[in-house]
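Notes taken during the Thursday session

The instructor put the following on the board and asked us to keep it in front of us for the whole hour. The protein is DNA-binding response regulator. We were told not to look anything up and to reason only from what is written here. First, the residues (200 in total):
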Amino acid sequence: MIRVLLAEDQAMVRGALSALLGLEGDIEVLGAVADGESAWRELQRLQPDVLVTDIEMPGLTGLELADRIQRQGLPIKVVIVTTFARAGFLRRALDAGVAGYLLKDAPADTLADALRRVCRGERAIDPLLALEAWSEPDPLNERERQVLRLAGDGLSAGDIAARLQLSQGTVRNYLSEAIGKLGVSNRIEASRLARQKGWL
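Then, after some discussion, the predicted structure tokens were revealed:
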């Protein structure tokens, strides 16, 4: 029996995924939560075989959950089910140890099949997205990504510096580097482009 925890912030999608997987004789849905922090608590409590998660959720994102699972060495596979058909997200997911990455518009039976595959130690990645993922590498490093994400949220250099415990000069340097790498003229354009590419 494949034991699954669902993490999805949209109630209708969460209910549909739970009902869909509940029809499978070899899959048991242990729980379904609406945000990343609840997912983290339930992961530790329930110890499922697989976490099926969206990327964007309140609290922790699906990618942050996958990264925590990987860093803590938990024996839990992660399958992301998302609307984000962006190569940058897939690359970051793979770096975080994600075993499956599916799009929400995939055929319904794809998810159950993906869960079986990842439990056998295989990967289940949308094939067209996998090809695209390696065509355009992410130019940002992790610190540039953090600074750019906060700048895109409207924080000033001073606010970002305080949040990340850096000097304002260092924050400006990271922003300048990111703007240069992305070939745009300011931090707003840099943030927008990086989000479109799935790098933030």
